[in-house]
Amino acid sequence: MPATIGPVVRIADVFHAYGKVRALDAVSLELPSGQMIGLIGPDGAGKSTLLGLMAGARKLQKGTVDVLGGSMAKARHRRAVCTRIAYMPQGLGKNLYQEISAAENLAFFGTLFGLSAAEQEGRARRLAAATGLSPFMDRLVSRLSGGMKQKLGLCCALIHDPDLLILDEPTTGVDPLSRRQFWSLIASLRAERPAMSVVVSTAYMDEAAQCDWLAVMDEGKVLASGTVAELKTQTGETELERIFVSLRSSNGAARAPLVIPPRKPGTDGPVIVAKNLTCRFGDFTAVDGVSFTIEKGEIFGFLGSNGCGKTTTMKMLTGLLAPSEGEAIVCGSPVDANDLSIRRRVGFMTQAFSLYGELSARQNLMLHARLFHLSEADAASRTEQLIAEVGLADHADADASSLPLGVRQRLSLAVSIVHDPELLILDEPTSGVDPEARDDFWRLLADLSRNHNVTIFVSTHFMNEAMRCDCIALMHAGRVLVCDTPAKVIESKGAKDLEAAFISYIEEVDTSPAAAPATESEPLASRQSGATPSRRRFTSLRRLFAYTQCETRSLLRDPVRLAFAFFGTFLMLLIFGYGVSNDVTNIRFAAFDHDHTPESRSYLAGFANSRYFSEGPPIRSVAEMDQRLKSNDVTLAIEIPPNFGRHVKWGSDWQVSAWIDGANTQRAATIEGYVQQAHSLFAERRAREASSAPSGSASTTIVLRNRYNPTAESIYAIGPSVPAMLLMLFLAILMAVSVAREKEIGTIANFYATPTTRLEFLIGKQLPYIGVGMVNFAIMTATVVFLFGVPLKGNGFVLTLGALLYIAAATGYGLVISTFTRSQVAAVFAGAVLSMMPTMQFSGMLQPVSTLEGAARVMGTFWPTTYYMHMSVGAFTKGLGFADMRTDILALALFTPAFLALSALLLRKQER
Amino acid sequence: MGGLLGSLSNIFWLGTKELWALAKDPMMLIFIAWAFGVGIYTEATGAGETVNNAAIAIVDEDHSRLSRSIAGLFYPPYFQAARTIGAADIDRAMDEGRYTFIVTIPPHFEADVRRGRNAEVQVSIDATAVEQATIGSSYIQNMVANEVKRYRQEFEHEPGLDSNLAIRRAFNPNGTQSWFRAIVSLADHLSMLIIILTGAALLREREHGTIEHLLVMPLTAFEIALAKVWANGLVIIVAFVCSLLFVVEGALDVPIAGSRLLFLLGTVIYVFAAASIGIFLGTIARTMAQFALMMMMTVMPMMMLSGGMTPIESQPRWIQYVTWLLPSRHYIGFTQAIVYRGADFSIVWREFAIVLVMGVAFLTGSMLLFRRSLASAR
Known about the structure:
The complex is a heterodimer. By secondary structure, chain A is α/β, with parallel strands linked by helices.
């Protein structure tokens, strides 16, 4: 195989920048094939960018990246080799779909890579067995612990038997036990398929030490590369951690190893007392009878596997969660969510970065200082002091979201101590932070504890950090297994180090298959390296359906979204069907009668007896008329002049004035018509009575025939047109949010790194929503026909065809919106702002499109709702058939391909 | 510092954070500008007058002077110039929706009118276009009747009984449609944007976990919510004022009869109420997709049933009770009173109070649900 002889990856002169920030700066590297290659370096060194470029998930800006014998800049090569590459992005289970089960995720990835159902099943079974995930395959990913997610992510990456496995910090935030299982799985895979190359970035030095070949990066540059032995001779150091440090600090400033002075035994009494803390979510007990005591000034380490209840315990201590049972006493008083005074004495740093990314480091600090009510001067000085103390000077004015992870964590710490708390609760503060930055971080903690007597409660996965604590608690499955000084914990198990003690403690109590060592009897690799999978037919369609299936399942598992999607439109239709009415009735009017004769009363009776008008108390003065019109007490005032009766009797000219509230122009115009009619009726009657001539009795009648809607009731217009509006708005926004969600959560990486084409992705995502739309159409049509009693006179089949095309167009429009919005908020916003106006105003529901003007006319013409509205109204009330609706169907049929083409054009296949 | 002052300072500083976040999101700002600028202008002008450009055809079976003069009655802007079609084409033309009105003048119409016989003009109306149909048909009826009367008087030299109805429209003498649509459109955009902005701002904090961070600080949920209300409300009110000055009063030339300050005060109260609804939705929704659906189901009735699209009086009684609960109905109500009728505080204060109470109710409701929904989301 030519690809396995030379280097597996050849990188030359690669530059990469995000805006002004340079991530990679003239990087050149050749990675030997068939080896385990480690990429180490501090946060923000450019490791993730480099891995993304190798996987083809990120767009190459400058330079060359050759992977498996071809350039990754060429789309053809990317398509050809991406089935041989597996890429697992950073973050626990970031590229997994949370709402579907583990097995379904595996099947999804299998299908994307074109495996047959049988192959998929076999491989999924073997991988699940090897990782100990078999019993959890039916569990939703969102319910898996972090370690399990990471193992599942690996399974998904391995399902297609790749030649190149790219893992971006796969063990960050994973507990030691899961970590050990993870690496033994990789090792057994490599033993079976020696030709497979593995590229992994890691923050753990012991993991890096296992690699055959290493590249050390910093600030977008490669500092050194080669085998571990080569690096040792190059730097003259023996330990990898020292090698790393000496390579980085080439300026010679050797760093003193971190030493934490021993704690002087305090006499202040306990700061935290947890008594039998228990927390249940439904029938799941997350924390089960946890008790411990923490003394003032102590550094208390909290260890445990992923999902064992550490975070939940911390949340109970901070009052974010109320314990189901038990009690927590912090700083001498029981935890109470409503007691704000205690919060001023406690600092809390959550697991995920929870500062405001859009604010700069300095702004974040100032904001928190102000929220803790420091005076402006104090806030500013404290901010500057903290910036200096935690070493943020270089980053103080950069957006927090653009900072490297390690710097962000330091910022988070600075923020959590801005108010000089007595107690600091830190939830995995150093996950994903490089060793050097971790040491710096701990230096800060040590200073706080020893010099400022701050009590520190910290959870961690790093054993060397645990060793620095005064006391540690080991937690597993909601219980505290042991709570003692690190030395005593090791001693109690007779283990060589804390990690071994940790694992032996857990294995002692846990006999579940997840913790059992993986059974490696079955071979994991099914083929020899380099062999291309046999081409199967319809892989494109199958990939498309994989997306459809995945989306459908997520939708079905969200009952709220489902209920709203199906019955929301129904509810809206009911409200609008009954509520929207153009029939103007019950107009409040009052008479301003100067005359008070039988004639004037007879004239007014014409109004009072009409169903359109309802009479209010008479008006007595001009000022009163003004006032009552102003206060909306009456909408119509009729002024009858003095001597009206006399004029009418004598048959001379007579005049009446009507004042209409013109605020609502539409209503005013309708009222005007009614008033004129009532007036004409009276005039005609008087004329007939007055005139004796035969010619006078003749009349010209104007007969109004309302077609299609004999009673001119609004429901005949609203019934068929509201569904058209609802379908558009609901579907476009749902669709846009669904794709934007992939971008925000990170699952879009699967689209970047797999052979999925743009159209497969788009149509695959679209199909479930077309289904939702058709169900909606059926529900709403039934409502209109049976509940509103508007008969469907025309061809129902043609209408259904039109609805299908229209729904495809509406979802297609949602796809277009999703291509230019990055967040779900923006998708909702854009969807609502851009679709409501044309749909509600310019598509013929209120006014025929032919009567619109200017921009409104243009919008109406290029908007699918116009055509479907026309069709729907025609089919319901006019009884039109296919021949009459041909042009509408044709127009609708053009929208979907146009929208799809536009989305495909705008959607990026690679990340920037 | 503590108590009320401390609380106010928290609300203020948290709010400035919202403003910063919004300032760094150009897409959002573009959408707001678009909605309050182009959106309102197009909506106000696009629909033309109440009856505008209505398509009309004449079936002239009389071919007389009178019938021709009737055909000549219809001209823009209310009607498109009347086309003459044959009697056989009526059904087809109506089915295709080419004309909203078809006026049929029977044979010997002129002669019948002259001889004082009964004559009948038929107007076929496409009643699926309800609004146009009702208003347009009464226009046609009056125009044709007047024309016939004029003709008869001219022919008979008979002064007849002259009756006169002087219709005057108060507050909008020419019935300029854009005056009305501009204000309704302003209200619609106001409701929609403020609800999305505040609701999404809250939901985003929840999805990104930053809300937990806020909740472990000495801050109350009330302060967090109120900060979002004032900051997003301020942005929307600034956009509103600009739109009022430059689009509504500037480009569209809509006169504002009442006090602008009173209008602004009412808008501030309404924005508070609508923002509280946004907070409420952001509290009960768990994901952005759920929020989007709930938002639609709130905003659409607020837009369509508030009296801006169709009059409140014509809603069935029970729906009127339901719509009474929509703050937008009261907003449209008092806005019309202030802008067109020049109402003063003594007239609108009651509706101001109702909207304010609604805002407080929604905010209180959100606060009651806040911690519970946060705990169950985990």
